[in-house]
Amino acid sequence: AQKITQTQPGMFVQEKEAVTLDCTYDTSDPSYGLFWYKQPSSGEMIFLIYQGSYDQQNATEGRYSLNFQKARKSANLVISASQLGDSAMYFCAMRGTNTGNQFYFGTGTSLTVIP
Amino acid sequence: DTGVSQDPRHKITKRGQNVTFRCDPISEHNRLYWYRQTLGQGPEFLTYFQNEAQLEKSRLLSDRFSAERPKGSFSTLEIQRTEQGDSAMYLCASSLEGPWNYGYTFGSGTRLTVV
Question: Using CB atoms, which residue from B40, B43, B109 is nearest to A105?
Answer without folding.
Answer: B43
